[in-house]
Amino acid sequence: MCSPFDTLDFPRPTREALALRFGQVSTLLDQANVPDAARLFDTIRRDYESWAALVDLRFAQDTTSPHARAERDYADALTPYVTAHEVTLKRRLLEYPDPMAVAQVVTPHTLELWRTDITTFDPRITDALEEEARLSGEYTALLAGARVRIGGQEVNLSGLAPYAESTDRAVRHEAEQVRWAFFAHNAPRLDSLFDQMVKLRHGMARTLGYDSYIPLAYRRMRRVDYGPADVARFRADVLEHVVPLVHDILRQRCETMGWEVLYSWDEPLIDPMGNPRPAGGDALLMERAQTMFDRMGGDLGRFYRQMRDGGYLDLVNRAGKAGGGFCTSFPTIGMPFIFANFNGTQHDINVFTHEMGHAYQNWKSRGLPAVDLLWPTMDAAEINSMALEFLTWPHIDLMVEAGQGARFRQMHLISSLSFLPYGVCVDHFQHEIYASPDMTPAERNAMWRRLEQRYMPWRNYGGLPHPESGGRWQAQGHIYRSPFYYIDYALALCCAMQFWIRSRTDAAGAMQAYVDLCAQGGAQPFTRLIRSAGLHSPFQPGTLADVVRTARDILNA
């Protein structure tokens, strides 16, 4: 049984202590003791990552805490120093005179990842990395501190969700107005933050010998088996196959609702009867989730019970808490943690099942021999999360209000399809931004608006000035904090929906393939993990078209 979360307290590392421990690895290599050197190197990294993950989590749980912010700043300053030591030792192991001795201890894929890692760092960019992390924290704190008034209540941005999905069109409109009023008010600061980030990243890339940040970003994401050209072809597939289907769905919704025009604040209302809601609050959902995971078989229920009993869940929305949801982990103890902001909408179910997919994968692969393998690259990691969203469908009636299971499943399918055009729009935007890092804020907004009109031609902001002028992208945290991550959701969704299609005729087989994929963790790169699970690559011609054809047939049934 794992230690309760509230008892976790990893030692706070110092530069001096880390230098001593990394020096011990070098000494072992000098003595030709590769096995012990590799094991100690892995242990040090697990220790550091566990501490850093807890620091980041505590800051996300309360961005207003001076102590949490100070610890986050300390970690931000320390991490480039640790990276420098890690890169030095990775180089030594990669250049070791007896490569077979290293290969016997470290998997070939780990070495492949390290060959990528050593091209992403140089001591000359240490200060820039620290500043990049500081700016990311500033963005997080700015959005977490948002307080807006609606319906006589003061809420944060996550708390706007119930209003944004209201069956009352005027309430939805008001929710959009107050949301974008916040971003309009903070636009100068948001533009300044992003401008600094873009120039920092471009400068780091140039220092490392790249023409732009784009190839460096792909290497930082550890993408070893595909590149920008593959992603561009996938975006073109979304434009060809998904955009027309989503446009048709929205036209039909407009007719059903009797609207002459579909505005941006109408899009979140996916179900004409009102979006299905959770069966209750977080306590009831957590209890029902136990039944759901127990029914799905295997060890999923046992794992969830450990998380729940150990306090490895933080799901309640509150003031000062960072927005969004994520899963982190503590590799020294082999336990993940789920962070979310429940707000009483269907999003609670989606984000919970999504993050549980990440958590289950990390737990299943906790025994893999190297810290580099505990998570796959994020493109593959998002398959684990999104696939579980679909695999819970047969039991989802437990999680929604009585009689709303079928409506929830349809809504989830429609929202998944609708996400793809937005997901590739974010990715395309970032490629354009980092290809031209000297764009002004106005030019960036104009670029976003042009791409938005290409991938989401139905989008009508009804005169809301900030998004209508192209500022919608400022609300997407990944663009600031995790550049080039967002396409991973779209690629993974194409794969996750293949699990869903398989589960319709072979539920047990689909679930077993999913469990096997989770257990592999990051033992292989993205495209090889896909093949091992019997899935078709989203880069393969026809894959997305086949998935969309099945979805269209089911929606029209």
UniProtKB/TrEMBL annotation:
InterPro entries, per database record: Pept_M3A_M3B, Pept_M3A_M3B_dom, Pept_M3B_oligopep-rel
Pfam assignment, any one: Peptidase_M3
Keyword Cell membrane part of the UniProt annotation: no
One term of GO molecular function: metal ion binding
GO biological process: peptide metabolic process; proteolysis
Keywords of this entry: Hydrolase, Metal-binding, Metalloprotease, Protease, Zinc
Cofactor requirement: Zn(2+)
Cofactor note: Binds 1 zinc ion.
PANTHER family registered for this protein in UniProt: OLIGOENDOPEPTIDASE F (PTHR11804:SF28), PROTEASE M3 THIMET OLIGOPEPTIDASE-RELATED (PTHR11804)
Family, similarity comment: Belongs to the peptidase M3 family.
Protein name listed in UniProt: M3 family oligoendopeptidase
Gene source species: Komagataeibacter rhaeticus
